[in-house]
Design goal:
seven-stranded mixed beta sheet; Spore Coat Polysaccharide Biosynthesis Protein SpsA, Chain A; three-stranded mixed beta sheet; alpha/beta
Amino acid sequence: MQKPLASIIIAIYNKFEFLERVLAGLETQTVKNFEVILADDGSNQETIASIEKYKQRSPLSIKHLWHEDVGFRKTIMLNKAVMAAESNYLIFVDGDCVPHPNYVEAHLQHRQEGVVLSGRRVNLSEQLTNWLTAERIRAGAIGAGFTLRTFADSVLGKTRDAEKGIYLPSKAFEVLFSQKFKGLLGCNFSLYKKDLLDINGFDERYLAPAVGEDTDPELRLRWAGKGFRSVKNYAIQYHLYHRKLQRPTVNADILAQVKQDKIAFTPFGVKKASTT
């Protein structure tokens, strides 16, 4: 079998109704040669059954990695997904972010060894989220017409960041639209697998969402000498509306220590430090 050009790693936890729309977006990609790895941080049996049923009829190549739900362990599952990836290029997506049809192509076109790419996302209103069904996505709903919808809803409704959904169809536009890197977005970034393993993957000490999820890998990749590049308006996502989750600060001390130590390679990642 042909080796996939990319491994799309999707962090998930329940909410199959969102995941189905993300997968529908991947079904419509202009580039088809990729695998999908579902990094499942302990979804319930109903979600697992829905995923298995979906896999049976999906044209996508899907691996479903799961571990027991004993609290937030996203970084642990992400490391497992990284090691299971068959491609040497990794693209990270969250289970509530629907990709534009050219999403995978954009990441692959701009990929470069030693460089981390990060795109951005349009934050959809509840109304547009309800409208953007999996059926509509498969039928080609995401395009110029949908961009106009997001702009109209940003004026009349509650969609935010509609300008980030303007798709630039070619790298030639880079001369006219310079892209300033404004930070790694954990739901929309890509890099070569080797570059992530150079920092030993994700730090598994972060056992709560929000604090450290994006900042920690960005810092350590910088200390490892990796470059960063924005692919905003090339690699576009649409974030499905849901109520904001609580943002605990329990990771703050870990992140503060990481910033103080400035060590790129974490001993709490893919390879564990010896205890002997």
